[in-house]
Design goal:
Blueprint lengths: L15 H6 L2 H31 L5 H6 L9 H6 L14 H28 L2 H8 L2 H12 L6 H18 L12 H33 L5 H24 L6 H6 L5 H28 L2 H23 L5 H42 L1
Helix pairs in contact: 2-12, 2-13, 5-9, 5-10, 6-8, 6-13, 7-8, 7-9, 7-13, 8-14, 9-12, 9-13, 10-12, 12-13, 13-14
Length: about 350
């Protein structure tokens, strides 16, 4: 296959809109870029989020706010990166429909971020990341019912293994919850993180459904618009929550008491916000280019990286249960990647046969 030929699509696993739009090298470049954004952004955001709590931060609404507050930086690539002209026959959704989609997804995103913030408050970064790996199992189920994603033996295996991985942490008596966190709060953190993983998976499937059934655009700008407007709604919800809860009154004292100083406090929040936006662009980009399930699969790669980084940065304990849990998470990830390889090989073979038949008939 040459660079001028269109890449081959695996039915049921790759977004046809984006796959047919770009040349082979363009498609792989965008996919690789989104993967890098997701892995680097998510790993950095989780580490910085745990650092915020460890150094004296205690506001769950602030931790929720920074996950979406940096969305204005996305206007830079939105207005500077040119997008191909869409076909005149393309039908755009009405403003009312778009506003409703962005509003609903934004509300879901805000609730999801709040649960993640609560989970990270009561869990170590390594435990938090390993529990988040369960989102792939949830996403496989949602993708089956919402996006007509095919279930195969390998995907079922991946789902079961990742579920077992999270279950191990749930019954782990030798947990390494942060200092001052009781067993009851550890359970709350576990349940919030598990629930957030389920809601996040639902959000990704709904985004993919919106791309395919409503937006139907063929430019990368639609990815940025989705992220910007849903983040705007989520940010507004987080700001309202910050003031309604009264936590805004404690922010000055929180900054004064931050162990690394005021500058470190501000920079931690700023870079956490930027890291989450980098991650989000990667997530939404992969949904547009491939599928919501594939986006979640790549997310599990960073979830395997984060526990290792947590051991180095925060000296988290990596006991036997955590090691087994991480190995199960990697096994689940590998199962799905191998399924993608089989799907792609099957599609390549089918296309080669079809081309051979066309050539012989001429």
């Amino acid at each position: 296959m040459t660079d001028n030929e269109e890449p081959m699509i695996s039915a049921g696993t790759i977004s046809e809109i984006a796959f047919n739009k770009y040349k082979r090298w363009q498609w792989w470049f965008l996919v690789s870029l989104c993967i890098a954004f997701l892995i680097v952004g998510q790993s950095a955001a989780v580490i910085l989020g745990r650092f915020y709590y460890d150094q004296g931060g205690n506001s769950k609404w602030m931790a929720t706010l920074v996950q979406t507050a940096a969305f204005p930086v996305l206007f830079i690539p939105l207005f500077t990166i040119p997008s191909p002209q869409e076909a005149s026959t393309s039908v755009s959704a009405s403003i009312t429909v778009l506003a409703l989609i962005y509003f609903v997804l934004g509300i879901i995103l805000a609730a999801d971020n709040m649960m993640y913030s609560t989970g990270l408050l009561y869990l170590s970064a390594s435990t938090y990341s390993l529990i988040c790996a369960s989102q792939l199992a949830f996403n496989a189920v949602f993708s089956y019912f919402i996006n007509a994603q095919k279930f195969t033996v390998l995907i079922i295996n991946s789902t079961v293994v990742l579920t077992l991985s999270s279950a191990l942490l749930a019954v782990n008596d030798d947990s390494d919850e942060p200092s001052g966190v009781s067993k009851g709060k550890y359970i709350i953190g576990f349940l919030c993180t598990l629930g957030a993983s389920a809601v996040y998976s639902l959000l990704l499937s709904l985004m993919q459904l919106s791309f395919e059934k409503v937006l139907k655009k063929e430019t990368f700008s639609v990815v940025l618009e989705m992220q910007i407007y849903t983040s705007l709604v989520a940010t507004c919800v987080a700001v309202i929550g910050l003031f309604a809860s009264g936590e805004w009154n404690t922010l000055h004292g929180e900054m004064e008491g931050f162990q690394k100083g005021k500058v470190a406090y501000i920079m931690t929040l700023v870079w956490t916000a930027i890291a989450w936006q980098v991650c989000s662009v990667g997530v939404v980009g992969l949904i547009f280019l491939v599928s919501s399930l594939y986006s979640n699969v790549i997310s599990t790669v960073s979830l395997a990286v984060t526990p290792i980084a947590s051991v180095i940065v925060f000296h988290d304990k990596m006991n036997g249960v955590k090691i087994i849990s991480m190995l199960l998470a990697i096994w689940g990830f590998a199962s799905y990647i191998y399924q993608n390889y089989l799907d792609d090989s099957k599609a390549r073979h089918a296309q080669a046969v079809a081309k051979s038949q066309n050539d012989s008939s001429c």
